[in-house]
Structure prediction request, 323 residues.
Amino acid sequence: MNLRYLSRSDVEDLNISMSQIISVVEEGFRLKGLGKVQMPPKIAVKSRGPESFLHAMPAYVGGLDIAAIKWVGGNDDNPDRGLPTISGLIVLNDPETMFPVCVMDAIWVTAVRTGAANAVAMKYLGPAQAKTVSIVGCGVQGRSNLLAMATIYPEITEARCFDVNPDALERFVRESRDAYNFQITPAASPREAVEEADVVVTAGPSPKEPTPYLSEEWLKRGAMAAPVDYMGAWEGPMASSVDRLITDDHGQMEYYRSKGYFRDVPRPYADLGEIVAGVKPGRQNPDERTMSILLGIALDDAVTANLIHQRAIEENIGTLLPL
Ligand SMILES: NC(=O)c1ccc[n+]([C@@H]2O[C@H](COP(=O)([O-])OP(=O)(O)OC[C@H]3O[C@@H](n4cnc5c(N)ncnc54)[C@H](O)[C@@H]3O)[C@@H](O)[C@H]2O)c1
Prediction:
């Protein structure tokens, strides 16, 4: 018996588009909203200090018949070592025999599926059109979320970007100007980046005890805040002041609360699956200010990894290894 091993370059060379990933992630959330997904909250161990973690993230996606687990680690000091913050592996299992059939690098999947999940949230909670978008924290997630927004909002005319690290900001602006045909504006302050934006993605650090640097008054009416940094940027009252607050999984949010996160965050009225499945309503009028706190769940990884695996089989990519 063999399993297929897909390295980081195998995964990336398949050139799967953001719009394909958004489609499978949206379908995954629809199935979750219909109660067809088994997904216990991710569990964590820490090896050394608060800056590092390892998460085990299993899921079974009924309807698509996908069984998978991601084993993902992160260390905030990795960039100082010249390494990505996040690394990991995803294992896909045959849903009948339960034997492992594929092991793949998780770096690319983690980057793109997070942007894709945010794009799904924006389709249901964001403004109908977004001309100005904002990225605060111009790293891996800043890039993935800008691509996701450019995919669902073809009318974007400007992306305003801010990063505390001037080199990171300069690199991001240069790369984005090459990649997109809308204006890329480096902002001199976080406030300048977010004030006129229709959608604001924050992707800086996510400490348990954040030092907020964005005021809730800076999010304009009708706009959406889409933090992927576990509310590391917005000040405490923000989550209570928006008209609609969602997350991707209530159980996952409760798990994080038990670890000391989200003390100022009220219980979201819905998870994204309930909204995509039509069980609960999304945005109801153009004036609402909305917010999605997506924590990153195993469902996102399972459906994205399954798409990659299917394409790898079709194109005969990867290395077959004996079990
Ligand atoms: N919710 C999810 O599903 C999910 C998934 C992956 C990563 N994350 C989180 O997303 C965040 C970003 O991850 P990443 O992989 O892009 O990290 P990264 O290290 O690639 O990028 C983070 C960027 O934020 C910048 N930054 C730091 N402090 C800042 C500040 N005060 N203001 C503005 N910019 C600041 C850094 O200079 C860096 O460029 C992390 O908090 C990570 O935990 C969430």
